[in-house]
Amino acid sequence: MEYIHGIIAAFHAIPDLLQQFPYAGIFLLLVLAGVGVPFPEDATLIFCGFLIANDVIRPLYGVLVAYLGLLIGDFMIFSWGRKWGRSVVTHRRFHGILSPERFTRLENQFKRHGVILILVGRQLWGLRVKIFLISGIMKMPRLKFLISDGISALVTMMIMIGIGYLGGASIAALRNDVSRFEHILVLAALILIGTALIVHHYRKKRKQSLRNNPS
Q1: Could you read off the pLDDT of 167-196 as tens digits, one per residue?
Q2: How many other C-beta atoms can be found within 10 angstroms of the C-beta atom of residue 174?
Q3: What is the distance between the alpha carbons of residues 28 and 26, in angstroms, rounded to a whole number?
Q4: Mean pLDDT across the chain, nearest whole number?
Q5: How far apart (Å, rounded) are the C-alpha atoms in residues 103 and 86?
Q6: What residue spans define the domains of the chain?
Q7: pLDDT at residue 15 greater than cutoff 70
Q8: Does residue 151 have a pLDDT over 90?
Q9: Percent of the chain with pLDDT over 70
Q10: DSSP state letters, 55-117
Q11: pLDDT value for 210
Q12: Is the pLDDT of residue 206 over 50?
């Protein structure tokens, strides 16, 4: 329960963080999402596009901060796999993410199509972390991983930020109907928080299901 309360308290601080330090907030959320904290990466990128559309952040800086946050989060997962190797598969903390059975199936695919698996797998929410861990476990060269992930992350980022930008631009006229634009910012942040809570609940239920049905 204390863990859940801590997460909820952190979520409540998100609107203030994004309102006062939008660049730092986006960067932090993307890094945390990359290492498994339940802040949805895609929702954060969409939110970044929303901020760009409403002139809260500059397009170039927003895109660069988001891209850096993505790469750092991905590389941290890759580094964990590279450092601890196959012991990650048997560790209880990672068992819900990458079980020995899943590792065996993905390992065979990775040996044949490593780069392609990163390029495609990064676009699939349920496969991202698994692919990054396996890339590290299989000792893929760091530069090769960064190039492959960098290309794939660029695609992810432009799609999600583009969606957020289009959505934000469509409601930009609301700025003339509210006393302060911060209200829109807080509303969008609350949507992000709600999405994160739903994802966290889904992951928790899924882990419980895996524990109850280990097969």
Answers
A1: 776 665 555 555 455 566 666 776 777 777
A2: 13
A3: 6
A4: 77
A5: 9
A6: 2-212
A7: no
A8: yes
A9: 66
A10: TSS-HHHHHHHHHHHHHHHHHHHHHHHHHHTTHHHH-HHHHTTS-HHHHHHHHHHHHHHHHHH
A11: 56
A12: yes
Q: Give me 14's structure tokens.
A: 């998100």
Least confident of 7-21, 34-48, 98-112: 7-21
**Would you state the structure tokens that stand for residue 74, as one six-digit string?**
């991905």
Torsion angle (degrees, nearest 10) of CA 66, 72, 76, 82: 130
Rounded Cα distance between 147 and 113, Å, is 15
| DSSP string across the chain | -HHHHHHHHHHHHHHHHHHH-HHHHHHHHHHHHHTT-SS-HHHHHHHHHHHHHTTSS-HHHHHHHHHHHHHHHHHHHHHHHHHHTTHHHH-HHHHTTS-HHHHHHHHHHHHHHHHHHHHHHTTSTTTHHHHHHHHHHTT--HHHHHHHHHHHHHHHHHHHHHHHHHHHHHTGGGGGTSS-THHHHHHHHHHHHHHHHHHHHHHHHHHHHHHH---
Question: In terms of Cα–Cα distance, which of 160, 156, 181, 157 is closest to 171?
Answer: 181
Question: For residue 46, which amino acid is it?
Answer: I
Residues 167, 46 contacting (CB under 8 angstroms):
yes
